Input
Amino acid sequence: MFERIRQVRRNARERVDLTRLIELCRQLLTERGESNSVAIAGHAIERYHRLSPEALDRFFELLAGEFDPDPGEVLMLAERYAVSRVPANLIALSRAAEPPRQELLRRLNRGAQGTATIVAMRAQLLQRLRRSPGLAAVDADFEHLLSSWFNPGFLQLQRIDWQSPAQLLEQIIRHEAVHEIDGWNDLRRRLEPDRRLFAFFHPMLPSEPLIFVEVALLPQMPRAIAPLLDRQDPVRADAQKMKVAVFYSISNCQPGLRGVNLGNFLIKRVVEQLRDEFPNLKTFCTLSPVPGFAHWLSHVAEPADPRLKPAVLRELHTEMAAARERLAFDPTAASPDDVDQQRLARLCAWYLSRSADPQAPQPDPVARFHLNNGARLERINPLADLSRKGLKQSHGVMVNYLYDLEEIEANHERFVNGEVSAARAVTSLI
Amino acid sequence: MFERIRQVRRNARERVDLTRLIELCRQLLTERGESNSVAIAGHAIERYHRLSPEALDRFFELLAGEFDPDPGEVLMLAERYAVSRVPANLIALSRAAEPPRQELLRRLNRGAQGTATIVAMRAQLLQRLRRSPGLAAVDADFEHLLSSWFNPGFLQLQRIDWQSPAQLLEQIIRHEAVHEIDGWNDLRRRLEPDRRLFAFFHPMLPSEPLIFVEVALLPQMPRAIAPLLDRQDPVRADAQKMKVAVFYSISNCQPGLRGVNLGNFLIKRVVEQLRDEFPNLKTFCTLSPVPGFAHWLSHVAEPADPRLKPAVLRELHTEMAAARERLAFDPTAASPDDVDQQRLARLCAWYLSRSADPQAPQPDPVARFHLNNGARLERINPLADLSRKGLKQSHGVMVNYLYDLEEIEANHERFVNGEVSAARAVTSLI
Amino acid sequence: MFERIRQVRRNARERVDLTRLIELCRQLLTERGESNSVAIAGHAIERYHRLSPEALDRFFELLAGEFDPDPGEVLMLAERYAVSRVPANLIALSRAAEPPRQELLRRLNRGAQGTATIVAMRAQLLQRLRRSPGLAAVDADFEHLLSSWFNPGFLQLQRIDWQSPAQLLEQIIRHEAVHEIDGWNDLRRRLEPDRRLFAFFHPMLPSEPLIFVEVALLPQMPRAIAPLLDRQDPVRADAQKMKVAVFYSISNCQPGLRGVNLGNFLIKRVVEQLRDEFPNLKTFCTLSPVPGFAHWLSHVAEPADPRLKPAVLRELHTEMAAARERLAFDPTAASPDDVDQQRLARLCAWYLSRSADPQAPQPDPVARFHLNNGARLERINPLADLSRKGLKQSHGVMVNYLYDLEEIEANHERFVNGEVSAARAVTSLI
Amino acid sequence: MFERIRQVRRNARERVDLTRLIELCRQLLTERGESNSVAIAGHAIERYHRLSPEALDRFFELLAGEFDPDPGEVLMLAERYAVSRVPANLIALSRAAEPPRQELLRRLNRGAQGTATIVAMRAQLLQRLRRSPGLAAVDADFEHLLSSWFNPGFLQLQRIDWQSPAQLLEQIIRHEAVHEIDGWNDLRRRLEPDRRLFAFFHPMLPSEPLIFVEVALLPQMPRAIAPLLDRQDPVRADAQKMKVAVFYSISNCQPGLRGVNLGNFLIKRVVEQLRDEFPNLKTFCTLSPVPGFAHWLSHVAEPADPRLKPAVLRELHTEMAAARERLAFDPTAASPDDVDQQRLARLCAWYLSRSADPQAPQPDPVARFHLNNGARLERINPLADLSRKGLKQSHGVMVNYLYDLEEIEANHERFVNGEVSAARAVTSLI
Output
């Protein structure tokens, strides 16, 4: 009974918050609001943070419904510009075609905690996007603005080590997405002098890393992940002499920045930073998972590649069948059998480099990221990750991608045209 | 002879720089360039800084010619959106209607010194805008982007005092535009504990103030500027007890940011900062020049204001004639005559508050700035600025504008509707 | 066999290090060494850090033997000064009577890591002091110099919180000596906004806390320690309203600074700091262990206090006997019996305030520290620390000492004269 | 009349301040004061800063009279120590022989602004020392303590440049004692990238430089000062390629630190710092004035040096007579005559290297400083300083001293033994 009354009251309060928030948003876009916009934005942000999930649903619907450009006006101005390309016509058209939502977000950003709120808002929007496809244009506006504001020209690269604030380190532990960090002692090993951890920060979010990468300095390109994660692994005193820098983990911290390109810029900036600090470094590479391999192997019945001769295709199908049979007994156990491992490596090379027809997108998300960045597929390593997750995702196979700054433009272009840059060690497997 | 050869060589080199710069710009917008955009942007920026004034002319022409949206495509998408307002249509339209120049600038910003370069580029563009009106759409793109990037949500307020780096203080001396600073000792008085100097900074330009304001803490609203500028003026030890904060000078430092609203936000942020530091402050006001007054008085023959009764208008005309006659002998000398000064004050009140018809814009640029910010015209002070410049611009009259955060929204709205908010002390003059 | 050869070689190398170190020390004190003392000190410090424990023994013996003042010279100068107190005689005498060791240490301090090395040296010296009483004068020189250099005028108070470097927090965990910190989560509760942790730092040892104190902000003086140590204890959002600041743990981090007064200064500086930050605070007190109580109760047969009447003494002896009998069953279990607890409180009041004759020193080290600082014994809390250690040391009793800055001079003087300042709540127990 | 009353009142107030200060000093040394010493020291410091010059006189007298060691006690303990050198006897003796003034100063240092006050106190003491020789023992105590506290192990080297706070730069302008800095523009040239200015700071006086040195990076050892001081001197863009670092000015900022060795340590630390930053540097030298040369030439009738053969001495006397005659016309004009200049160089070499008998101290203070630091007299430069001051002090001659870290120990030892290390270029002049 009392519970119902409380619920009614809460609902009423929420309706007030939502109504007030919408009023403030409208006011922000008016003439009258302009002179006081910082204060109004501040109030709007406060209200926003009080919304219940249901009120948030309605708020985003409203953003989608009310702040679109006026179709008639845009059409009229587009016609005028098509007739005469004078600056005035273009200026009027560009202005009219930009959804007023973007200006609304720019003004919201003026309030205290504005940037952090907009990033959080995007994260909440993304959770609704799948079930409310009508929000797609709203999301496009967020992505457009955030890409402009979180432009690499505005990001600050910062090294994180044992001198960093505990508050930051705690976030690193929380956000590590590739190879889980098991507490402070585990983290500590990854911050020793033969390791590096770099993160991008935005000046408006100084205590929140956006994305970070973990690097190990080694004498040669590694074939397995376990030694890198072992907290007992002895610290190399001679970090200055190492030849290889391995990017063994890269994690995003801000779901609200999905679609904003950060990883590509981070890796290249870190390569330059490391080259300055360690002039002996010759090789910059990754040790990366192949998350889609096991699924491909078990689900893709008979891959077809129009570029391949029938004999070659037949061989591939035979190999796949053999591998499936071997793995059938226990797909998460690693076979010590050399033949098996050799076969897995070969199939993985197929999977990553030519499994699909050139028009289809690269099926593996990690491969897509690095190849699109301009990296080269350098080596396939069987028995590289024997963790439960590693065996399940890729039967233990991991891959080295190589970043050679001289080649990344050409590699990227090749990738965009459906071709995978790969070292001879990989192509010879096929 | 040799000189000509050198000239030829220089011309050749410049042509190379320009050609290469344009290539780099095109490359930045291609797929291939994307993976390496930070490096390409860096090269483009280097080339840009080597351009001669003539090469710059051509570069801006090219920006205007080549990076416009495609009229046919925009028209087609506008039609499609007018027919069906689904998100996909809107997204496609917004993208197509945004001039590719904006994306070009966002990518240039990724290079080292990107932001500083773009601000400098805008300054050079503005110098060409008057004689090349065809650049207006290019300028609109710069202004649009810079307004987004120099959004007050991204600016940092910093106090500048005698502990600040000499390099910063030197810039303050150079950029002070209202009341010239005559060397380091003069500056020093303006940084003593009974004064404040605040500037906005952008995180990417940490050693360049964008705009700054000078504040004096006083027991009451000041009637004249000389004591504030006198470097012998004794420092008030009891700054904490002062009731009035006077904004006596505000100067922009970055010509490239013209049109980006900074002053409005700066004043309001400083008001809040001062309120925190000095809880005894009751009044926040300016002591401002009236740069258009003398010109108006001598040039505007017989102002007409449809809202006024003929008798009132006649009185105004009589007063103006009398004032002109008195000033005719030496327009830059201040009359000690009370009647004269009273008359000047009255005419200045007319000038600022109702000289024009409500549809016409406010003629005085300083009044326009403060009234549009939501300030109120509080007092007219004759004999307030007896410097050569003060006498010439406004026969020595200065004005206090009052910032009352409770009223600024209403004042601003009134101003937008052609009405000037003024204190009784001013309205009673008329 | 090989082991023996290695041992012989190591011994030889050590002998070389020791011999060279002593040469460098002698050189530092010569004229020739003076012009290059920073470099020589640096070499000496390097050698020092290579010494084996045995070589250290010999090094300290040498410090004791070789760098004493010359008795004949001092005696001659003392006679001269006794005859004529002119400045020259005094200056000569003071110089001659100061052991040259002090100048040696001052010069060693010039080398890289000088201060840290001297503090570490003292720690190693102290470990040898008990078994080598001949080192007492060497130790007195260290203490004299370190007291001058770690003078509170040179120390910096720093708040430590979750924004502090992990490296510092790790040291806090390691050095907490009163109430053990069980890992990072446990530490975190002690750094929340309703807690404070302050440490003293020396400018030459910026990453090593010297001593730290943990403070809780509470509505009233606490009677038990468990809630303060419970990491689930809800964080008080209203820290600003709290009336009581409780110092619940104070720990030294540098054994080499034994005898250098730090705790007294730390507590008083923190009181001032907290008064500034929390104007509502009225009471500054501790919640302290009574480490010597249980031992006293079980070992001191029949305390005699000449100031007491025989009847009172008899009562005390009866009470002690009763308590012993009750505790005999299980000295580490807390009795829920009110009478027992009341009796323990009374006996603890006896123990701390008048157990001994006024000439004898205060037997409890914690009481000695706080009473000597000028605090007042404010309340005895039975059942306050039911941890194994708390029951064993003091049958669960803890004590509040009160710091009232107005009274500390008088309290300290009283304590020096053998009297304990205690609140009525304590004296009335007896 | 009123003036007299005011005077009487002021005198009374001053007497109170002095009396109270002395009471506080006594209290600081008592048991009772110890527990509250930071507060008491703070009060004493406040009173101290209010003393009139006369009250200061009396305060220092009192410091001299009251805080001496007890002669009887010291004598007794010296006898005991002479009989038995056990640690206890030594500890007691050292304690008793140290003037209680030192402990007083250590306790004063605990108060706010303690260190700054003690340095200022010493400066005021030094002003009185000549006319009150009885204060010599007090001064010795200050020097002893300050030497311990301003030990190079506690000093921080800081580069000062155009990014430094104006407040610091202002002090540099004020304290430059060798080659006056004529305002901010003059200073600026000395901070350009081909120059360096380094200062020592003490952590307790973070905004007051203690001593600073100005360095120019040059292709070769300079022969004249004017180009270094010319603010139009073009900045060398290739500072990294320079071979020679010239220390062309060194100035003390704190008169209260007289006798505390700072310059020697500063120069050597700067040499190391420069070696790290500019690996191409081969030579570290000075361009120094010879302030006593002109006085020696005109006043020392016939220098005698027992080490010299009569013929050599005769030649010297002839040369001196000739020089005097040539200079008689206008001692502040530089002769363009090569013979004259050659003669001046030769005489200056005599003056600096062997003018006096080896037992007598080096007469030139600048030479004394550098030679005692272990530098070598490298070259005599006639016509090197044609400023009024330069001509008057040394007929325009300046000198290069060379700092070769490999040789400074040997050079210093030689100097202490009465010998001057000089390059062949100098010795060959004689």
User: Anything to note?
Assistant: Strands of chain B lie at 156-159, 195-201, 211-218, 244-252, 283-286, 288-289, 376-381, 398-402. Residues 398 and 423 of chain B are 15 Å apart (CA to CA). Chain B touches chain A through 69 residues (CB under 8 Å).
